[in-house]
Structures are given as C-alpha cells and as structure tokens.
C-alpha cells in the first residue's frame, strides 16, 4: 500500500499546474486579507482561513481525481493487483492528507514572514497539527464525490462543495459577515468547526465542546458517505 | 511440474451471468489444471470477456461457483495468484513504464525481478518513457508486463492481440510462450483459431455463453476446419453418419448437410453409393463452425451420452 501511496503522490507532484493552483488561491487570499495591515487577531484568522482553504482544495481535488482515474480504467487496473479496493480508498485518503500539508506549511511560512503572525512555537505546532489532521473528514468528502460521480460531474460537485464550504465555513470572511439567516447554518458545517479548532488554539482557549461534537458527527457522516459512494461506484471500476 | 499439487487452477461450476434478459454466460462448467495453456476461443459476444471478468473477481456470477486455486476469485487475486490483462483501459499520465511496472510488481509477495519483466515484455528500451505516450503495441506490452509482473500462478489475457499489427502480435505471443514455459498456467481468449493453434495446448470453444467444445488444438481444428458436403439425397435417407470423415449430419430444406474432416473420401463414398443429386462442397468459416458446434452441443445436452464437452 505504501508503494501505491508513493505512486499517487508522484503523479500529483509531477502535476505542476495542480500544485500551483492549490497554492495560488490560498496565498492570494491571505495576502489580500493581511495586506490592509490588520491586528494580530485578524491576521491569525486570515492565516488559518487561508491554510484551511488550501488544504480543503487539495483534498477535494484529490477526490475528484478518482472519477478521472475510473474513466481511464486505472481503478480497474488496480483491482487486477493484490491491493484490495479498501486499501486503495485508504491510500487515497492518506495521499490527500499528505498533500494537504503543502498549503498549510506554505501559508504558515508566509504568515510568519509577511506582516508577522506572532505565536509561540507550541501554538504554531498545535495549529499545524490541527489543520493537518483535521482535514481527514473532508478528504472523505472528496473521495465520496470521486467514487459517486462520473468525471465531469465529479469536478462540478467538487467545485460547488469547495466554494460553498469555504464561504459558509468562514474561511474567507468571518461568519458574522454572512446574512443573519445563514449564520446558524454556518456553525454546523464541518469546515467552520475544522478551522475553529485552530482559531481557538491561536487564542489559547480550550476547544469548544460543541465544535468537537459537530466535527465528530461530520466525520462519521462523511465516512459513511465515502463508504456508500465507494460501494456504489467502486464496483463499476 | 506443479500440476499434481493442490486444487486446480480454475474451476467453474454451473456459472451463469445475465445482463437484463441476456444470458451472457449460460451455465459454464470448466476445469483448468496447473501448468496448462488454455485458449478460450469464440466469436465476439460469445461471453469470453464476461467469463474472464468473473474469473478475476471483478463481478460475481449470478449462479454457480468459481474457484481459483481453491479460493474465491477475489481472494485468489488478493493472495497474488492472479495476473491479468484486459482489453479496455487507457494509460495514466505522468508515470514511466519502469515506475508503473515496478509499482505493480511490488504489490505481489514474490514478484519477478524488474529487469526480467522488462526484458520479457521487450520494454527495456522504453522503460523511461511515460506510459501515456506509447504506441498501441507498446502500451499492450506494458499491460502484458503488468499481468506477469508479480509472477502469478495464473495469467489471464483477454484478447491480448486485439488491435495489434502482425509484428507486435508475434512479439507478444513469443513473450507469452516464454512465460508459459516457466510452468505457469496461462488462459487467454481470442477469436483467431490460428492463435489458439500456435500458442495453446488446449482449446475451449465458447459460443452463446456456453462451452461448446473442449479439446486439444488438433481435435478442435478437425471439428472446426472441416468442410460441408451437401446434396439432395436419392433413395436412402439414413446412414450418412457412417461415411468416412463425417462428423455430423443435418437434414435441412430437403438437403442433407454433412460436416466432414475429409471431403474427398466422403464424396468418393457417396458417389459409389450413387445416393445424391446436386452435390456441393464448401469450406466452413469460423463463424459457421461456431454455429455448428453450438447446435451440436444443444443436441448433446438433449442426449447426454453424446456430449462433446
């Protein structure tokens, strides 16, 4: 399975366009938000939001790539090896989570050296780990989309969920700038709760119990969705 | 040789697969022993690919059982007993021949050495090319290399030479024979009799989702490659099956159709008996032979003592 993870990472790393795209938008977002020279709190908000935005983009795109692989017959080719289909799904999740590191680290570095986000080393590490590990449930959303839909549809579904979750989750702008009727909904999204972990950590406050509960529920739901989609679509591989 | 040890390579028992109302596979019984090189011969739409896909565990049969080395197909695949090359499928971008072959071989427990695979499939010279930048013949050789990379006990090739030119075709068969000579079991499908003849030691003929003939290549050739002698009978209507060379007799549209492996002797005997008018001798095309075999097997199924399979 490690060999498979290595191969998929190799394929993605060689896709320079994909890597650039996965970085350009989050970097642009952070630079735009930080450019006005806001206070530390807003800076941290912007940095976490942009990193989460980048990581989300990577895991969703990785998922929709599964639909393209199926169209090429690659999933079927994998079924002609001793790898089990479940191993393939897990490996894809691992690939997504590994590549999610890239925007997190890049945005973190830019945050540190552009306008100077000021955090203790322990907090930096904490935020890094939370952003990295916390992306796993959203990686499952991407995988589910990739298995459920055909290539073109998967791309549309991926883009729509990417943008919706980014806006609703408050990654671009704080959720209190959303229309009032959307604000309660926003608090229930996995992306808001995912980013909230790091926002809280940066503010040195304990993680919100409700937040963890919502996130746990989403993790279960999205895992079930990925499993369902895999059973529907993986069989057609 | 390994053929005495353990369960057979492949066992099909009463396997049925339907797509809607169409019975793609209509009750196949088949045993393939270790070390055999078997050709699955049949016209397009005979059910060869469906049979192979079930054998590989890509989907389950609607009825019946399939065992591969005594295991369910999916588990046999998981255990590394199987390697396969299918007809469809494009190549993925941004991966070289060497990387792809090496990845697949490392998913098996006891793979062949990388260089040996590349040599066997004649890929050494293009090992650093990306797999999505290959010609049809080269891509086919990569698929072949992937099938045998793990040194599986059974290699399954679904119409491996479809869409290949003569040269690539010859190279592929040479590579396959080198592999079979190592004692591995090989099953391949084709709709060319000459491919089955050149490369297999046993031929299983499939038509309309059933096994209609099963034997050595020379047996199958004599069944398929014969001629048809047809005429309007004069006087006697029976006993034509006793004439030299005749393998089957059919009465159709006032004419008698004899299938014969030796049309000269058949015609000589007929003329001595002065038993006909309006004689015609014609060769049998492969399609026609398949139809004849299908008919024969239906009759055989009705009268069990005369089974051809």
TrEMBL record, chain A:
Reply yes or no: does the keyword Transmembrane apply. yes
Name a single GO cellular component: ATP-binding cassette (ABC) transporter complex
* Residue intervals of the ABC-2 type transporter transmembrane domain: 8-192
Q: What is its main location?
A: membrane
Membrane topology field: Multi-pass membrane protein
Which GO molecular function, any one, fits this protein according to its record? ABC-type transporter activity
Q: Which residues cross the membrane?
A: 12-31, 43-67, 88-111, 123-149, 156-175, 212-230
| Location of the protein in the cell | Membrane
- Record keywords: Antibiotic resistance, Membrane, Transmembrane, Transmembrane helix
Biological processes, Gene Ontology terms: response to antibiotic
PANTHER family cross-referenced by the UniProt entry: TRANSPORT PERMEASE YVFS-RELATED (PTHR43077:SF11)
What name appears for this protein in its UniProt entry? ABC transporter permease
Its source organism is Streptomyces sp. NBC_00003
